[in-house]
Design goal:
Strand content: 35-45%
Strand order of the largest sheet: 1-2-3-4-5-9-8-7-6
Shape: globular
Distance between the termini: 15 Å
Number of strands: 9
Largest sheet: 9 strands, antiparallel
Number of helices: 3
Number of domains: 1
Helix content: 10-25%
Order of helices and strands: HHEEEEEHEEEE
């Protein structure tokens, strides 16, 4: 039995609306769509949309499957944001992230290349390890698609120059 916070605090479930009461969401379809969306938004410098908040950077991707993806972040060298997926206007997955550039020689192009290489088995940020020239990317994830947290970092010639924490999962 699942007990919601609303039930414990307010003795009712007014705020707990289940969009998929029987758990009828296909995680594999969400993950496959998420891979498409990630490879066609920020990482590809495509599908930027109107800011949803003052000075936010926003990207949106849709296809004919009924899924919609939004990525919205604030900041630049220090940043925080959220990626989310909806199915027919119902939220089904979300991930929050916060990171910062902490050294010289950071390459936004390298980070975007890494993010375009997001693997199907871990469709959150980039692959576990990615190297090109002097740049090395590492990503560690604990959990699985339904509930996870992770950390990524970029090194240039063995000096850490970037880090980002992220967490998220399925929304019900």
């Amino acid at each position: 039995m699942v007990v919601t916070i609303d039930r414990m605090v307010k003795e009712n479930d007014e705020c707990n609306i289940s969009f998929f009461p029987n758990g009828n969401i296909d995680r594999n379809k969400i993950a496959a769509f998420l891979l498409q969306a990630k490879r066609n938004t920020y990482a590809a410098a495509e599908n930027q949309t109107k800011s949803s908040r003052t000075n936010s950077h926003d990207f949106c991707y849709e296809n004919n499957s009924g899924y919609t993806y939004y990525d919205s972040y604030l900041g630049g060298e220090c940043f925080a944001g959220e990626e989310a997926v909806w199915l027919h206007e119902n939220p089904v997955w979300s991930m929050n992230y916060a990171g910062r550039v902490i050294g010289e020689n950071f390459s936004g192009d390298f980070l975007k290349e890494v993010l375009r290489a997001v693997p199907a088995e871990l469709p959150f940020r980039g692959p576990e390890i990615y190297t090109k020239g002097d740049y090395h990317y590492h990503c560690k994830v604990d959990g699985e698609f339904i509930w996870f947290q992770g950390y990524e970092e970029i090194f240039c010639r063995n000096e850490k120059i970037y880090e980002c924490y992220f967490h998220g999962g399925i929304i019900r």
